[in-house]
Design goal:
The protein has 118 residues and is of the alpha+beta class. 48% of the residues lie in helices and 14% in strands. The chain contains five helices and four strands, in the order ββααβααβα. The strands form two sheets. A two-stranded antiparallel ribbon has the order 1-2. Strands 3-4 form a two-stranded parallel ribbon. The protein is globular, with a radius of gyration of 16 Å. The chain starts with a strand and ends with a helix.
């Protein structure tokens, strides 16, 4: 599967299906705009975990890293708003508005929930 975002091209190779067929767990960083494409590719093997961040936090982070122009930052924020998902969309959310330890803890909690279901 492949997509474009933020002026860049992204993709996930066919080897992922091979790994899944061998029973491996695979963690992918994708685009919420391409979630339906991922669901078509991976079907019931896909467990969507969506990383969200408050828009003001995202703005500050983008400004601080200094790679995007003011206009590019506004486009990123607009895109984030357009592709916002609600928990009713069938995914596990992570709020990445805090520090990395908080996000990692949320991921571990989700992983524990999923392991408990098997």
């Amino acid at each position: 599967m492949s997509w474009q975002a933020h002026g860049l091209c992204y993709g996930v190779g066919l080897e992922v299906k091979t790994w899944l067929d061998k029973g491996f767990s695979v963690l992918l960083n994708g685009s919420r705009a391409e979630l339906s494409q991922a669901q078509q590719c991976f079907g019931s093997d896909l467990v969507p975990i969506v990383v969200n961040v408050e828009l003001d936090v995202l703005r500050t982070r983008l400004q601080n890293r200094g790679r995007e122009s003011r206009e590019e930052i506004e486009l990123r924020l607009q895109r984030a708003s357009e592709f916002a998902l609600s928990e009713q969309d069938g995914f596990y959310p992570i709020d990445n508005s805090g520090n990395v330890q908080s996000s990692a803890r949320q991921f571990r909690d989700i992983r524990s929930q999923l392991e408990g279901k098997s």
